[in-house]
Amino acid sequence: MQKITWHHECLFCKRPIQRGRPTLIFSTDEPKLYGISHSTCCATKYKYGHFQMCPPDYLSEEQISFLVQFFYRLYSLPGGMKPNRELRFCLITFLQDYPASSANPMASLRKFLDEYKHRSDQQLYEGDLEADFLRSLGEIQKAARENPVEVEADFRG
Domains in the chain: how many in total? Predict the structure, then answer.
């Protein structure tokens, strides 16, 4: 199993990551982890999925496998001003507190709904947002178990 830690080479500048907030870089076209980057190096790399470890800590093999599948599926959902974009926004809210949000995904859903009702650009979601949110998380978790990524990130020391 590969272990990503301090002094790991940045995907973009090739210098070692020695401090700051390391950012995991994921493919949005396929379920794949590209590597890790300084937060400043990846700031303008919009074709990738970014997961900033804030504060830098530890992500297990299972958590990284989940994120690999998560970013791939997240970017396949409608976004921007397209209809049914709310599921994507809801999953992004879940990601903001990951991995802590995985203990209670419904708290993320409630947080999204509370913030969404104050937005001026609301759209009507065609379907059951709660059911689709939970179904999406279940599908992502199932795919992560079936296709594990043998990588862990440990920035505790």
Answer: 1
